[in-house]
Amino acid sequence: MSSTTYQIPKVQKAAVVPSVGGTLEIRDNHPVKQPSELLPGECLVKLDCTGVCHTDLHAAKNDWPVPAKTPLVGGHEGVGIVVAIGEHTQDSPVKLGDRVGIKWLAYSCLDCEPCRKGLEQVCYHGQYSGFTVDGTFSQYVVSWTSHVTPIPEGLASTEAASILCAGVTVYRAIKYSNTKIGDWIVLPGAGGGLGHLAVQYAAAMGLRVLAIDTGSEKRDLVMKLGAEKWIDFKETKNLVEDIKAATDGFGPHAAVVTAANSEAFEEAIDYLRPGGTLMVVGLPGHGKLAADIFYTVTKSINILGSYVGNRQDAREALDIAARGKAHCVYAVKPLSALQETYEGLAKGTVVGRVVLNMQE
Ligand SMILES: [Zn+2]
Ligand SMILES: [Zn+2]
Question: Where does the record place the Enoyl reductase (ER) domain (predicted)?
């Protein structure tokens, strides 16, 4: 396989975090790995766009218990075209010209026990885009042919970008929440980046959605997207009682908690219906989950962690979006807006998701 069809520049625009805790730098002379330098199994993707995720902020600040590489090119919600494939690559599932997504899980060995059980996102040898390997805040990115995600036709690249992380994450959490059609699911933070996608996936799965957030703008959004009921957490006097009252008096069958504060997890034990499931999705750097043991036992509550998704989850989440069942609310910005986007994410002022145009 050769790359003769595509002209690959030597340098590119990229957002680089030079050192731990260092200031983000937008460079226009960042090297592009040339097709001749690609290892077997690697491919070079020319990016159309990439989403910005709260995880990128953690990676840039290096405030998680596990450190990111430095210098670091962050980003893990990229969509673009395969423009080169490493020589001697065998059985590549993608070919030159294919439109693919680059997601958080850049590589898994497919052979360790978690991988063999379909839990490749916790592979013992996993590599993560924009964390352990350079990610998508550059015009070209190197990834693995086995793990780039084909993007369905008809789904805009800018739409697919946020589905690759936010969409996959909430989709999988709902899929494994032990719920069935007609069950109640509560979604704290329903009007946020992950939450507004969760509302739509839950509704598409036939679940009854109780959305929790604050403000009339978010209320109107989530009700339009398919929520059946709404609670404004700033207006309620007793959130737990109001949630139970809204869900037949018994509480929801499941809660998908994407918040980063531990209170939101503890409350779920109180309001969940007996036999209910708490899906722990939010990723605070150092939070603790204090579950009341007595009620966890006597209500037979399931507490499950859910972390992004495997390659199959990604395809399913994209497919549902391509069929128009889940739309992302996002704003398109240039790469130079990355720093201000981080500041907005830190303050919680970003509505929906931000997608960066990488080819302008
Ligand atoms: Zn993400
Ligand atoms: Zn593995």
Answer: 21-356
